[in-house]
From TrEMBL:
This is DUF1059 domain-containing protein.
Amino acid sequence: MKVLHCNDAGFDCKGIIRAQSADEVLKLVAQHAEQVHQVTITPEMAF
């Protein structure tokens, strides 16, 4: 299980993204960022 805490990415947010793979986490993080923070994640930001 891979986990990313939104506040670890620099947002004042208690969101926690969990998925089976890193690729899946990145997809879910991008969706969360757009829906909740109105931020578009680019490939450069993902690394």
